[in-house]
Specification:
The chain is of the alpha+beta class. It has a domain of 66 residues: Histidine-containing Protein, Chain: A, CATH 3.30.1340. The protein has 3 helices and 3 strands; from the N terminus they run ααββαβ. It has a 3-stranded mixed beta sheet with strand order 1-2-3, covered by helices on one side. The longest helix is centred in the N-terminal third of the chain and has 22 residues.
Length: 107
């Protein structure tokens, strides 16, 4: 009889826990333009394919705009791919200019 009581009690706990967990509303915080700008800037700065410090990021209504200079077309495309990778980004306008790196000349 004690085993039966223990199994019933455990079953009630499990079912109660499932019901309580399932009834909780999961509210999602909206993603703001400043959130997207910050995430993109951090990701671009961390990426070693381009020079994130030379890329300006602005976001308006989910459209991310990239301005500045990069060393190559692949760095330009990488920056666009990074900016597109965040939830909430509707589009990316890539105005990055490809400028060949300067060669350091010694006199």
């Amino acid at each position: 009889m004690n085993t039966r009581y223990a199994l019933t009690f455990c079953t009630a706990l499990v079912v109660g826990g499932v019901l309580l967990t399932g009834c909780q509303a999961t509210e999602k915080t909206p993603i703001t333009d400043s959130d997207l700008t910050s995430k993109a800037k951090i990701a671009l700065f961390s990426d070693n394919r381009g020079k994130g410090r030379q890329i300006d990021v602005q976001t308006t209504n989910g459209q991310v705009m990239l301005h500045g200079t990069v060393d190559s077309d692949s760095a330009k495309q990488a920056a666009e791919g990074i900016a597109k990778g965040f939830e909430g980004v509707k589009s990316v306008k890539n105005d990055l200019e490809v400028v060949a790196p300067r060669l350091h000349r010694r006199p």
